[in-house]
Amino acid sequence: MIAIYDSGIGGASVLNAVRALAPTADIIYLADQARCPYGDRPVGELHQIALGCVAWLIRQGAAPVVVACNSASAVALTDMRIAHPAVPFVGMVPAVKPAVQQTRHGVVGVMATAATLQGRLFHEVKTQYAAGVTVVGQACHGLVEFVEAGDISSPALHAAVSAHLAPLHTAGADVIVLGCTHYPFLQSVIQHLAPDVTIIDPAPAVARQTLHITQTHGLSRPEQGQTWYYTTGSKDHLAWQIQALGLPFGAVAHVAVEELV
Q1: How many domains is the chain partitioned into structurally?
Q2: What's the CATH code of the domain at 181?
């Protein structure tokens, strides 16, 4: 059973990509919506939250664990692997490498949360892959909340996205990396507002890596293609999000924050 974890519904962009490649895999999805958004939380607090969430998923018998949250990956992925050495993890790393390969003007934009842009993973990929290329990070405050509210098309959303794109446009970015798993749900709006920009969604690559790890670690087994959704918030709201965003059907349940330790 594959586990996918995010602060909210955004990680379902990765769920969609995994399901497209593995229609018969069983998947458990955890949305920590009671504490969403993560992006502006203190690093120490977010680190503790993320470790508790993945520990709960592992207790459910899930492996591998996909940390479909850039903010949580940025602050806790290394320690997750140390705490659970027998469990394979797949994290979210800003897709700077493919963006650098595709830029024509030598400027790459990264739309992400503050936590992701301040994290070690982001700085590591810039150092490793972006020599000679300008990487401009844009902390997109508020966009997660639009997606969580099921708003992926309103005039207010367009205005917010436009404001976040403006600095990237000014900098001359011709490639934009979606550095938060919520943002692929806004890709059509972003593309509409920046029609000449190449947009990179890392979800398909993460899905391919997840299936590769599942196979190489001998975790593949006959399954029934079931999806279980858990939320620390309102299960009624999550059920509505699943329908509104056209996500794979599955059972929805609540899990108390106190259990995620």
Answers
A1: 2
A2: 3.40.50.1860
The answer to whether residue 69 is catalytic is yes
The domain boundary, picked from 181, 201, 221, lies at 201
Residue 180: active-site member: yes
Confidence of residue 231 (pLDDT cuts 50, 70, 90): very high
Calculate mean pLDDT across residues 1-5.
Answer: 96
Q: Which of 36, 53, 140, 180 is catalytic?
A: 180
Helix (H, G, I), strand (E, B) or coil at 195: coil
The tens digit of pLDDT for each residue in 56-95 reads 999 999 999 999 999 999 999 999 999 999 999 999 988 9
Catalytic residue among 36, 53, 69, 140: 69
Owning domain of residue 53: 2-92+204-259
**pTM (global) more than 0.85:** yes
**107 bridge partner residues:** 134
Question: Which residues, 6+ apart, have CB-to-CB distance to 231 below 8 Å?
Answer: 30, 31, 32, 33, 34, 237, 238, 252, 253, 254, 255
> Quick one: DSSP state of residue 170?
H
